[in-house]
Specification:
The protein is of the alpha+beta class and 191 residues long. It is 29% helix and 29% strand. The chain contains six helices and ten strands. The protein is elongated, with a radius of gyration of 21 Å.
Length: 191
């Protein structure tokens, strides 16, 4: 059975396996904080519990618990290695905390899976004059993959090389269909 837990500060929901949900609700420390009903969406896109406590000396301490990390530490600890020690989501949805979606991965893999900040909207794609360059990082070196007429062609070249070099750990751009606005912008820029 699948549980959906509403976040306090967003319309989205966290997905949980039934036995994980039961553990979160019944674990004494988490239950004492009403953990499951105080989950929020963090700026990183993860579900997080944050509470500020007054310590005995009068100072304040903020406790932060990332849901996906808590679940992995409880249920997937046996898959953690010195190299694969960061928790990630197979499908990229950080609110999907089902055990089948969580895994430990290396820092390099986590870095490759991070959302792109490229102005083109695709990892490894850069505009140069009226063409699009595809570039991928291999062993910390930038490798030129070619020049292309459209950003989508460059993104496909990146995807192909990423699959070839990194397999399932490689980043894959999601190619969006070109809109009329994209085509009009290309005409204005002379491409």
């Amino acid at each position: 059975m699948l549980y959906k837990v509403k976040l306090k500060n967003a319309e989205e929901e966290v997905l949980l396996d039934d036995h994980v949900y039961e553990w979160l609700v019944n674990e004494p420390y988490l239950s004492s904080m009403d953990f499951i009903h105080n989950l929020r969406k963090h700026s990183s896109g993860c579900a997080v519990f944050q509470k500020t406590w007054r310590k005995a000396d009068g100072a304040f301490k903020t406790e932060t618990i990332y849901l996906h990390k808590l679940i992995a530490e409880k249920f997937l600890q046996h898959t953690k290695t010195p190299e694969h020690n960061l928790v990630g989501a197979r499908n990229g949805n950080k609110l999907d905390c089902r055990l089948e979606n969580l895994l430990y991965r290396s820092r390099a893999t986590a870095s490759r899976k991070r959302k792109t900040s490229s102005h083109m909207g695709y990892t490894g794609v850069y505009k140069e004059n009226n063409r699009y360059r595809a570039v991928i990082s291999i062993n910390r070196k930038s490798v030129h993959l070619g020049m292309f007429a459209t950003p989508e062609e460059a993104a496909l070249a990146y995807n192909k090389k990423s699959r070839e070099v990194y397999g399932e750990d490689g980043k894959q751009n999601i190619i969006r269909p070109r809109t009329e606005q994209d085509k009009d912008a290309d005409k204005r820029e002379g491409t």
